[in-house]
Amino acid sequence: MCGISRSLKNVPKTSYFITTPIFYVNASPHIGHLYSALIADASARFQKLINPSINILFSTGTDEHGLKVQKAAEANKMSVDKYCDIISNSYRSTFQTFDVGHTSFIRTTSDRHKKCVSRFWDKIRPHMTEGKYTGWYCMADETFLSEDQIERTNDGVRVSKESGRPVEWAEEDNYKFDLRPFKEDLQNWLSDPHRIKPKVFHDILCREVNDLYEISLSRPKSRVDWGVPVPGDSGQTVYVWLDALVNYLTVSGYPDGGFWPPDVHVCGKDILKFHGVFWPIFLIAAGLQLPKRIFVHSHWKVDDEKMSKTKGNVVDPVGAGRAYTESGLRYFLLREGTAHSDGNYSDVKIRRILNSELADTMGNLLNRCCGKAINPHLIYHKSNPEAFMNLSTDPNFRELDQRLNKLADVVAGHYEELNFYKGIDEIVATLQCCNRFFEHNRPWELAKSDDLDKLSSILHVTLETLRMSAITLQPIVPALADRLLNKLNVDNRNWDQIKPNWIDNNEIVNPNCLQNKNIILFKRLIIS
Ligand code: MSP
């Protein structure tokens, strides 16, 4: 049994289906939304890199129904469809600006999605009952809450304990769905510790399983008419979260698509319960397979405070991209974002990291290899076997050699788990090691001596390090990695090329020279 599962693990995947949450169109995208999308994008790019023939379905999109959106359109004095078009397009264009390579962009207002919701409703309808709901509704979170899930603020306002957002009393006829009969099935699914990552969120869900209850799956049309009508009951609208979750089936081509189930759902910690409790239970009720993995990420704060419109500290990704370049912002978010705990966005920090890692550690190393004094003919130097042998006594080279030989495997392990920051850590440590190696060997002095064979070997090792680093960075900063690989004249950029070619690099670089064009890989940012 063990042997079978081990060998199955090694069979290359033929397809990869990864999703982001679909974004509410009640406001424009911010860096937190972009972060969700970047995690999925980096993962999809990595899968393609290790397995170029893989079929990728990477979906994202906008969640356009429900009271919150209806009210946002009213507040903006716009028809709701026009309002949805505008915000949905701003997501689409932001993602394009940041090279988010989704293969599907779904809008819940599309006909194909509405059809899918109706079909799914019919599937789970036998598990529903009709009845009165009395309780609290939090419009900002689009969720029903029980008495013990709310509290009063000092001003006496009732709010959700979890999100702190206001709630309103609801007394209405709804279609209800009891989650409790599915407890055992849910527990079975959760019994695999890899199901929900990071572990902290798996632990939270395992506790939630003991606290299942009855939920409402519709709202009276008189209260919410911006939504999918309940099939066969024109007086009711499908609950926006059911509508939204079904987007994952719509993009898979349900009921005919071959992509189901998803390999990974990426979602933020605030919507864990919807993805880790409601969604698997709905799928069980519909007799469908469950997602293989859910990757939950924490949130971005700004200068240690929660981002909020009232505080006016919401960071617009497009503006930040202009200030730091799109590659710079991608790099920062994936380098500093850790899934298990909140990240802190600050202008000082972003500048410091980008200057130190992209401009100095990587950019400057490239410049030095292309400097007139040591590489006047811009050659991708070969290594002289004898001079190269002599390097083996250099402790910096020995460390670099060790790092480069395991770089592909170590980084792949982290990327596979969507822990991009750990992969980037390895790459940066390798580049730092290469900088020490370069400094220590003083190539600018060798250029003036007659030890040109040694100079060639130093340049060869350094260029090889840059080549491998650039290949591994492709999922993180595709545009920047592309510029670096162009400069190095590297055609084959697949993952299997991340291995040092110490003695002869003829096969990988043709012709054997660097691009004769000056590039600044990353322009230093001014720290005020
Ligand atoms: N529409 C629902 C999701 C439905 S999926 C079937 C929704 N939308 S949202 O626009 O409010 O949030 C979308 C994603 O952005 C969520 O994963 C959420 O966690 C994430 N983020 C919202 N604020 C964030 C930060 N400050 N930081 C990081 N991610 C953040 O929920």
3D structure, described in words:
The protein is of the alpha/beta class and 528 residues long. The protein has 2 domains: 14-127 and 183-203 and 241-344, Rossmann fold; 346-497, Isoleucyl-tRNA Synthetase, Domain 1. It is 46% helix and 16% strand. It is built from 19 helices and 19 strands. The protein has helices at residues 2-10, 31-50, 67-75, 80-97, 111-124, 183-190, 199-208, 240-245, 247-252, 272-286, 317-324, 326-336, 347-370, 385-391, 395-416, 420-441, 443-446, 452-473, 478-487; strands at 15-19, 23-24, 55-63, 104-107, 128-138, 143-145, 150-152, 158-160, 168-178, 196-197, 214-216, 218-220, 229-230, 233-238, 264-268, 294-297, 300-302, 305-306, 343-345. Strands 1, 2, 3, 4, 10, 15 and 16 form a 7-stranded parallel beta sheet that branches. A 4-stranded antiparallel beta sheet has the order 6-5-9-11, with no helix packed on it. Helix 2 links the parallel strand 2 (23-24) and strand 3 (55-63). Helix 3 packs across helix 4 (80-97), helix 12 (326-336) packs across helix 13 (347-370) and helix 13 (347-370) packs antiparallel against helix 18. The longest helix is centred in the last third of the chain and has 24 residues, at 347-370. The chain is elongated. 5'-O-[(L-methionyl)-sulphamoyl]adenosine binds at residues 21-24, 32-33, 35-36, 63, 244-245, 247, 267-268, 270-271, 299-300, 307.
